[in-house]
Design brief:
Helix content: under 10%
Distance between the termini: 24 Å
Shape: globular
Number of domains: 1
Structural class: mainly beta
Order of helices and strands: EEEEEEEEEEEEEEE
């Protein structure tokens, strides 16, 4: 579930859509595990003196009776400047273990420090926060849990009709193979509208709970 954060930005670049985030907005997903409530994933993007700042909050929990058998919470703040990631701070609580990462620009590259040590990325790197979609040729993402490079393969699976907020819309489906194999859906404007993957034998699915018109692109 590391990359969902969570588990964390990928998709086919549709005509007219930008790889870098361009619009403020808010989206919230209801997350299910094998069809049962599992938690929430929220992204709020705001404009800040010419930058875009994205705040992500993920809260996932599985109980068996009164016992919590899985718990994952993560908060991330991303700063995007001139179409590129300029800063990243994430804090994760997963099964009782807390980790933090941070990224800053140094010498026109991103220096990322975290549980996975210190790593350097190009300014064009994308984090695994899922709400943005990097170019389909991307092969490395920033793991928002450890800060380490995540090697990925991105495969466009074509456009299909899906249900979002009670309406049928056309969305591009993309499969990302990395730490997990994750299917992601983005609408024609590049807005994140769905997600599904399997972890520990459990099917995790995201369904948009807020109006599509309010989602960032």
């Amino acid at each position: 579930m590391r990359s969902l954060i969570f588990a964390a930005s990928l998709a086919l670049i549709a005509p007219g859509a930008s790889a870098a985030p361009s619009d403020a907005g808010r989206l919230e997903f209801d997350v299910t595990r094998n069809g049962q409530p599992f938690g929430r994933h929220t992204v709020t993007v705001s404009a800040d003196n010419g930058d875009l700042r994205a705040h992500t909050s993920v809260m996932l929990r599985a109980n068996v009776g009164p016992l919590t058998v899985y718990r994952m919470e993560q908060t991330c703040t991303e700063t995007w400047r001139d179409g590129a990631l300029a800063a990243l701070d994430c804090a994760t609580l997963k099964d009782g273990r807390r980790t933090r990462i941070n990224a800053r620009i140094e010498s026109d590259r991103l220096r990322v420090s975290g549980a996975g040590g210190e790593h350097w990325f190009s300014r064009s790197a994308f984090p695994t926060s899922w709400w943005t979609r990097p170019p389909p040729q991307a092969t490395t993402l920033i793991d928002t849990e450890t800060g380490a490079p995540m090697q990925v393969r991105i495969t466009p699976l074509g456009r299909e009709m899906i249900e979002v907020g009670g309406a049928r819309i056309a969305a591009d489906r993309v499969r990302v193979q990395g730490t997990l194999t994750v299917d992601l859906w983005y609408d024609e404007r590049g807005r994140w509208v769905g997600c599904r993957f399997t972890a520990r034998g459990q099917t995790i699915e995201y369904r948009l709970a807020t109006p599509l018109t309010s989602a960032p692109a």
